[in-house]
Predict the 3D structure of the following.
Amino acid sequence: MAGVVLLVLHLTAVWWFTLRPNAVPWVDAANLRPLTTIRAEFGDDPWSALRYAVESLFVLAPAGVLLPLIGGRVNASVAGSFARTVFAGSMLALVVELLKTTVPGQVANVDTMLLYILGIALAHLAVVPATRARLRRGHPAGRAAGAAHAEEAAGTEEADAAKPAERAADGKAQGTAPRITRVEIAP
């Protein structure tokens, strides 16, 4: 629940700051070709380009940590978590860029969206795998979650072994139905 609240607060702040109308007499056309704005910015003034790139990296970067926090899984795979987070983050970046087209003085820019996604990916890789490993290894909650999962799996196997084998009409044992842990048999 805390992850959802923090993500909503973060996205509210992002949308408040990035989707404000600009009172300008003229704006550039929307950039739909990747890396065009970044090349142009670095060609004109490298320091302002670096500032633009760093600011764009940090806009949605907290989402790289907050999106996995919503699931709350300590034992998730690194690659799966990264793929889910980058996909969800890219959808958030796409929504922000598409909403910019409805705001006066704002235009969509593919380079900004790419930098948003890169910020999400870097934040995720920098924080989430190390935090999950630490929780699994040394934190009591991480050990408790791992132990509870192991006990649950062992408990279902013992319960299946204790059941008597089902008998067919001719009296021969059919055995128990194969079951995957935490998946119930349909009625």
User: Anything to note?
Assistant: Residues 67 and 88 are 8 Å apart (CA to CA).
